[in-house]
Amino acid sequence: MEQQFELPIDVAFQSRFGRARWLQPATEVVLASYPTQGVRRVAIAAPGFSADCLETLEELGIRGRDTFIGAGGTHFARLDCLNDSDEGMAMLDALIRRELAGWWPSS
């Protein structure tokens, strides 16, 4: 059964490296702009990562929080990645099996 959030969802990008232009909008710019738009509470997630790493913990959880709260936000939550949860691993297993179907011998 497909479910849909009844909350606004924005997409922003992080993980810039070097001087090259990165994908836009940048996460810190979006987080800094929310309080000026009346958004005081946010929860952020990094669905591109299957496990929390220093990048998600530091860039999003620490610097992202500081940016948002410093701009006037009041409540900030960084949602955990899938990590090693049973549900997360089952989803990854299903995706991998689906994508490898016909390429890898079944066991």
Report on the structure:
Helix content is 36%, strand content 7%. The mean pLDDT is 88. The chain has a two-stranded parallel sheet. Helix 2 links the parallel strand 1 and strand 2. With 107 residues, the protein is mainly alpha-helical. It contains 3 helices and 2 strands; from the N terminus they run αβαβα. The protein starts with 26 loop residues before the first helix and ends in a 7-residue tail after the last helix.
Quick summary:
By secondary structure, this protein is mainly alpha-helical. The protein contains three helices and two strands, in the order αβαβα.
Strand content: 5-15%
Q: Topology as H/E string?
A: HEHEH
Query: How many strands in all?
Result: 2
Euclidean distance between termini CA atoms: 29 Å
Shape: elongated
Q: How would you characterize the largest beta sheet?
A: 2 strands, parallel
pLDDT averaged over residues: 88
The percentage helix is 25-40%
Q: Which consecutive residue ranges, at least 5 long each, have pLDDT under 50? A: none
List the helices and strands and how they pair.
Layout: H1 27-33, E1 41-44, H2 54-70, E2 75-78, H3 86-100
Parallel strand pairs: 1-2
Helix pairs in contact: 1-2
Question: What descriptors fit this protein?
Answer:
two-stranded parallel ribbon; 7% strand; 107 residues; mainly alpha; 3 helices
